[in-house]
């Protein structure tokens, strides 16, 4: 299976919750069986031929915040995989906030269904190659536009996400990290950032279609694959 290279070796793949059980069985079959062990927020599938699949629990911890820690720790084998599949398939209420310079989108999802959203944009000029006073004036104008764009993104987040904060189980962020980080000083958004979970979504300009497609990424189980050692 193709995937993105992973730091430290191996590669990343993403598997939709509905395919996770089939994928895990296929991994075990391809590698002569597999032992399943929970380590923190990772379910590790150790193939008998040395191959490893590290299944990162989405919306950790496994079983949710109120899970019985002893029961989760004791789970193993098929029970552990069953718990992970059920956890990944849960229909959570999740907030999403996407911000890029000049564009923003906020939404609330029930499972994959978008139930509230607001998308907007503000003009922010690109950098100028001019020199002298013209460059300084342009830089000040661009800085003002960027500040106004950030404020607009904050207002949308307050309007869409803050009223739902008591029902949100997690908040997923995306877009440009610097643009998102610029909102962290807004005290109104503190309850939203307190619910932040990964992965950070690398998305293009936050349009409605982009927002609607985010569950495909944030609901997927990220898996780091390590091939068996060569002889």
Topology at a glance:
Elements: E1 4-5, E2 11-15, H1 20-30, E3 34-39, E4 42-47, E5 52-56, H2 69-74, H3 77-89, E6 93-100, E7 103-110, E8 113-121, H4 132-160, E9 170-175, H5 177-181, H6 190-193, E10 196-201, H7 208-213, H8 215-218, E11 221-226
Parallel strand pairs: 6-9, 9-10
Antiparallel strand pairs: 1-2, 2-11, 3-4, 4-5, 5-11, 6-7, 7-8
Summary, kept brief:
The protein is 34% helix and 29% strand.
Number of helices: 8
How much of the residues is beta strand, in percent?
25-35%
pLDDT averaged residue by residue: 86
The outline comes out as: elongated
Biggest pleated sheet: 6 strands, antiparallel
Structural class: alpha+beta
What is the C-alpha radius of gyration, as a whole number of Å? 21 Å
Q: Helical proportion?
A: 25-40%
Q: Spatial order of the strands in the main sheet? A: 1-2-11-5-4-3
Written as H for each helix and E for each strand, in order along the chain, the element string is EEHEEEHHEEEHEHHEHHE
């Amino acid at each position: 299976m193709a995937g993105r290279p992973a730091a430290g070796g191996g590669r990343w793949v993403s598997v939709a919750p509905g395919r996770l059980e089939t994928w895990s069985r296929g991994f075990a079959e391809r590698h002569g069986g597999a032992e399943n062990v929970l380590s923190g927020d990772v379910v590790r599938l150790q193939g008998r031929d040395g191959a490893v699949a590290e299944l990162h629990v989405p919306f950790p911890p496994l079983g949710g915040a109120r899970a019985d820690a002893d029961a989760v720790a004791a789970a193993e084998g098929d029970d552990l995989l069953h718990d992970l599949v059920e956890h990944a398939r849960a229909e959570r209420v999740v907030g999403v906030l996407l911000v890029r310079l000049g564009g923003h989108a906020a939404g609330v999802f029930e499972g994959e269904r978008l139930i509230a959203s607001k998308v907007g944009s503000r003009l922010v000029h690109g950098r100028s190659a001019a020199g002298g006073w013209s460059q300084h004036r342009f830089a000040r104008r661009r800085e003002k536009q960027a500040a106004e764009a950030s404020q607009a993104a904050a207002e949308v987040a307050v309007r869409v996400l803050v009223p739902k904060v008591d029902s949100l189980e997690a908040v997923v962020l995306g877009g440009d990290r610097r643009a998102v980080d610029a909102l962290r000083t807004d005290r109104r958004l503190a309850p939203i950032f307190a619910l932040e979970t990964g992965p950070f979504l690398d998305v293009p300009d936050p349009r409605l279609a982009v927002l609607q497609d985010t569950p495909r990424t944030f609901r997927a189980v990220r898996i780091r694959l390590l091939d068996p050692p060569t002889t």
